[in-house]
Amino acid sequence: MSQYIYTPVIKTRDAELKAFANLKQNIKNSILPIFELTKSRKTKNIPDGDIHKRMVEIKKIAGENPFILDLSTNEKYLNPQIETLLSPNNGFYEWVYFINSYSHLNIIPMIHIYDDEDFSDIEAFVSSPHLRGRDFAVRLPYDEQNINEFIDPIIRNLENSNLYVIIDVGQISSNLNEIEASIKERIIEIKSCRYNKIKIIVTATSFPKLVGSYGENKGEFPISEEILYQKLKKEFDIIYGDYGSINIEQVEIKGGTFIPRIDISLSDKFFYERYRRHEGSYARCAKNIVKNIKYIPIQSWADEEIILASVDAPSGISPSFWIAVRMNYFMTKRVMMRRSDEL
């Protein structure tokens, strides 16, 4: 059994990195994160943002622990640097060079797949002497038919490396039973490959785009990715993955329009408190959270921040800060749950 029991997809944005950075070390040690590289904040001198700034941040928070490094393809987070790294030319030469320039980090590179019958650049990437000895990862849609057409050219060129195959659901928007059936087909296909160092990860998120529809001041909604995993693990040995409680189709928050909210993850659902600034804001949310019998402190950084807010001394009052708090509690909770699964 791998020591890594949880694989969250984490964009290298400020809130998501803050959430991961503030995880306790014993929690981090059980996580194999997928860092999805995004441009840094724009500045006057760097109008396109700089991905190397994000790599410096990753180094600080990952330390010596391994992580899967991917590239964001979302137009909001792209810049010319990322576009260059995504080019398949000469066996993904620029991506190889970039990974090699950070050889002091424990990077598991993502293999980028294009819908093309020519896999020569992928084979050249995997067999590059500059990447020899590394493990690899590949991310494929859960509804991709004939998934082994993409995996076979990879494993033909592996010597003795682990290959993390990520079956990615993305944002759960259809019937969970249909998704489950499709993932089972993919897992069975992957297991038919004659390579015994494949590790399967299933990633998904169901965090809603808009929470208010579940209740104006308080409400609950399911964590469908957890429900999906509980079904799949009865039949297959897979690693649980998610997006750390982030909705993929995020709403851009305009000043004055966001209603302060604190979200707490239970085993298979969230509950939240939500009050406008003139109604008590984060302090009132936190006071109600700590009085709620559903809330159980789990010795996380998030708990410390909720306690501070409950005594009218919040460390932050921006939406991004409380997204980080939500993620931190959520990821800590997932690790604790996966450890319980193994008992």
Can you give a write-up of this model?
- This protein has 343 residues and is of the alpha/beta class.
- It has a single domain (6-254), classed as TIM Barrel, CATH 3.20.20.
- The protein is built from twelve helices and eleven strands.
- The protein has helices spanning 14-21, 25-28, 51-62, 80-85, 89-101, 120-126, 148-155, 176-191, 224-232, 281-291, 301-310, 319-342, and strands at residues 6-11, 34-37, 67-71, 107-111, 136-141, 163-171, 198-205, 218-222, 239-242, 261-265, 269-274.
- The strands form two sheets. It has an eight-stranded parallel barrel, surrounded by six helices.
- Helix 7 links the parallel strand 5 and strand 6.
- The radius of gyration is 20 Å and the shape is globular.
- It starts with 5 loop residues before the first strand and ends with a helix.
- The relative contact order is 0.13.
In N-to-C order, the SSE pattern is: EHHEHEHHEHEHEHEEHEEEHHH
CATH architecture: Alpha-Beta Barrel
> Which class do the helix and strand fractions yield?
alpha/beta
Number of strands: 11
What count of domains describes the coordinates?
1
Q: Looking at the structure, what is the overall shape?
A: globular
